[in-house]
Design goal:
3 domains, 144 residues, 65% helix
């Protein structure tokens, strides 16, 4: 029974796990401390400094082995904003936007394809409509 009373007492007390986690991260990165008495503006600035520090470390070639990070683009930010507006968690929205941005590049028709079209004179591909439909089908197969 005492465990139940202890749990109930803890539930009534405010917990500041987020503050402890933020303070720990800021101290580890040598960015200062996070305190409950800080204003909202200060807390927001402190979190942004922490995020900026992690980005700087992640994009430093001496740390990341020369890997390049995806640069944020206006398109990415628009996608993130739209997904968040639709109720998707902001972090998940960023992951999804990066996933779609990292998709393989568009693959067009090859020289071999153009030779095939050139050699198809007098066939159904000789008309514009059929040729366009064939090209659209080829591009769809390669890019989806």
């Amino acid at each position: 029974m005492s465990r139940l009373l202890h749990a109930a007492a803890q539930a009534r007390q405010p917990t500041y796990g987020w503050l402890i986690a933020c303070d720990d991260a800021r101290v580890t990165a040598h960015l200062g401390v996070a305190e409950l008495s800080h204003s909202y503006e200060y807390a927001r600035k402190a979190l942004n400094e922490l995020i900026d520090w992690h980005i700087a470390v992640a994009t430093d070639p001496a740390v990341n082995g020369g890997q390049t990070a995806l640069e944020p683009t206006p398109w990415r930010e628009m996608v993130v904003a739209t997904l968040v507006r639709e109720g998707i968690n902001k972090h998940r929205a960023r992951e999804l936007a990066d996933h779609f941005a990292a998709q393989r590049p568009w693959v067009g028709l090859t020289e071999k394809d153009w030779e095939y079209v050139k050699d198809s004179k007098g066939t159904s591909l000789d008309t514009f409509d059929h040729g366009a439909a064939w090209a659209a089908d080829q591009l769809m197969k390669r890019n989806t």
